[in-house]
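Case study.
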Amino acid sequence: MAGHLEIKDLRVRFGRASILQGVNLSVTGQPLSVVGRNGMGKTTTCAALMGMVAASGSIRLDGQEILGLGTGKVARRGLALVPQGRRMFPSLSVHEHLLLVAQRGQPAWTIERVYETFPRLAERRRNGGNQLSGGEQQMLAISRALLMNPKLVIMDEPSEGLAPVIVDHLIEVLRGIVAEGMGLLLIEQNLRVATSVADQVAIMVTGKIAATVRAAELIADREMQNRYLGVSHGH
Amino acid sequence: MSLQFFLIVTLNGLTLASLYFIVASGFSLIFGLMRTVNMAHGSLYMVGAYVGFAVFDPLYASNTWGSQAWLIAIVAGILAAALLGLFMQVAFLGWMQGQELRQALVTIGLSIIIADQLLARFGGNPFQFFAPDMLFGPVQVPFIGRYPVFRLFQVGLAVAVGIGLWLLLNKTKLGIIVRAGVDDRQMLAACGVNVPLVAATVFALGAGLAGLGGVIGATAQPMALGVDARFLLMSLVVVIVGGMGSIGGTALGAVLIGLAEQWGQVLFPTYSVILTFVIMASVLAVWPQGLLGRKPV
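After joint prediction, the assembly is written out as follows.
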């Protein structure tokens, strides 16, 4: 079931620049959204969690330290990433993307189930990863993560560049994932997505978590939105 | 120029191209797909031939194994080169992923060590395998007359290797993983794939193809020290002309270079060596990514 992710004092430096300055977060059972302006370190946090950049501090998944394991091992321990920009494999077809990560046995998520959930992907199974529309790519990126049957999925800006009607569909999909008991750490700029999927919202400012608030609180508090996010409405 | 002469030179070019393809396809796997610079590929070719011959020689002389000696030598040559390649990847090159200059220097160093070790162990005398009776001697070919059957076998083997590699890359899970790794190695790891293990497997496979080429090459022509540089250079040229990481491109490059060498020797023997590099320079000038290579994204 949902993995418990415990992040303590996570720090990342690029040369002399301190990108993450001690991030503390915990995802326990309930989905968590992380919001913040551009350049606050949200994507770096994802990279550090997946072992894609060198970091210090502590990342525990179900009590076990995963910091420093290397990306492949972190993924096999049960963290999956839906990366910013989706990062499709241009050389692979839709179906091959799924074959790449599909597991043997009787896991919760199988290729058949992905095709039932996203019939559009079944129609385009022979197409290349880069021949899909933005929405289709996002569904494929999410499917790729789900097929790993992870304990927890990290999603980095899944709504980026999607049409509003597709964003509605995305929210449905994310709610479904949460309802099934999979852990979710959702990095979002879009306040509507962030607050409709998770009840808890962490706000990131210059490489740290400035506050963790209830979604309803953030929606109601225009002043807080202005201060932390520089937006005056939850569009 | 008679038709017969034209056909013989062309067929010679194609049989040479077959050997080049077998060796260069291994190089293409390692360099084109895994982006590992392996300047010791010619050494792996030589190791395949020498170890193969060390196994072949006593067997061929014995009465019981004589007829199978050549096949056993093929297996031994492939295994020796594959294991040495695996060792190189795990012990040295895997730690230098993406550092091309360092990989180039290390593998050049290894190729010097390997050449000296082969000289110390096997001496400097040339040697040649005897093909099994089935593949030995001439055969009648229409319009050409008598032609060595082994050279025709070489073409068949190259076609089989090409089809096998195409199937491996396009129809298997390993192929999916390899292609995904070419696109985005980090994202492949994030999919839970053990990328170093895949890199080692592909390196061993590419090295094994060099070893296979070594035994085949030393059956067609006598083998002596010094061929490592020739086959490394040839592999580089073939892969650059054909396009990195494309099996079809490697085949096309091998055919072009094989034909150019044979026809060059016929038409202007003194300058035939230059022809290969004229082709390479022209391709680089017009199609920097090779004839069938993908444009960098």
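Observations recorded in class. Chain A has one domain: 5-229. The longest strand of chain A covers residues 17-27. We will return to this complex in the next lecture.
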